[in-house]
Amino acid sequence: MWDNRHRSVAFLLCAAALLAGCSSASTTRLGAKPDRVAAFSLSQLGEPHPLEWQPWVFSRFNRRTDYRVIEMDGRRVLRAQAQTAASGLLQEIEIDPLVSRHLKWHWSVPQLLPEADLSKKGSDDSPVRMIVSFDGDLAKLDVEDRAMAGMVKMVSGREMPYATLMYVWDNKLPIGTFLDSPHSSRVKLIVVESGSGRLGKWVSYSRNLVADFKRAFGEMPEKIITVGVMTDTNATEKDATAYYGDIEITTQE
């Protein structure tokens, strides 16, 4: 298991969308970035993800979460299976949140991770995460965050996102809780589901990204640059399965 320093660096490198030395990460295609999220429901059964998405890997030495498009409840969805694993999927996009501010998605979680604690390094696993990252002026960050941004760029060759919202399902924290990631204040965790009451069910959400960003960071957001999902269990060394439906960022509430 990695120590806390390595986990912190790895987490932020993932937020930068690509780890240095990660041979399995897809190469970003040339051309303009899409202005919508590619649907899992339109992918071929058995595929690991839509073409527009790419693996989001912590380390070549870490076991990876297995992602696969399957048929479930009469529709195609993304299944995530993690066995002491930590990796995700992401798609690079370019969307103005002042125009399209509503994030919509649904997911299903069969069971939680009782040992997980999202507020603490070393136990901050989650069966599901919905992740949205934003562009911005990195020069406005404090000294510590600028130093981390410089490290990310040096190692990965990519800019660290200015800010990231991460929607999670927690064991105990009340719905509506906002908290800093234990790895960086530039990543805000937002609890949208808590406890076991809706385990095994499809649960749908709609979030106002502008309102959430303003509450989390105290300013207006700039463009959205990535959307991602992640199911991770490497800290607690447990197994987890989750299912993700299609994701939309739209003008309509």
CATH domain class name:
Mainly Beta
Strand content bin: 35-45%
CATH level 3 topology? Jelly Rolls
Q: How is the largest sheet built, in terms of strand order? A: 1-4-11-6-7-9-8
Portion of residues within helices: 10-25%
Taking pLDDT < 50 over at least 5 consecutive residues as the criterion, the unreliable ranges are 1-6, 15-30
Counting DSSP E segments of at least 2 residues, the number of strands comes to: 13
What does this protein look like?
This protein has 253 residues and is mainly β. It has one domain: Galactose-binding domain-like (Jelly Rolls). Helices cover 14% and strands 36% of the residues. The chain is built from 3 helices and 13 strands, in the order H-E-E-E-E-E-E-H-E-E-E-E-H-E-E-E. The protein has helices spanning 4-15, 143-156, 209-217, and strands at residues 54-57, 66-72, 75-83, 86-95, 102-108, 129-134, 163-170, 178-181, 184-194, 202-208, 224-232, 239-244, 248-250. The chain has a 7-stranded mixed β-sheet with strand order 1-4-11-6-7-9-8. Strands 2, 3, 5, 10, 12 and 13 form a 6-stranded antiparallel β-sheet that branches. A hairpin with a 2-residue loop joins strand 2 (66-72) and strand 3 (75-83). The chain is globular and about 45 Å long. The N and C termini lie far apart (42 Å). The relative contact order is 0.25.
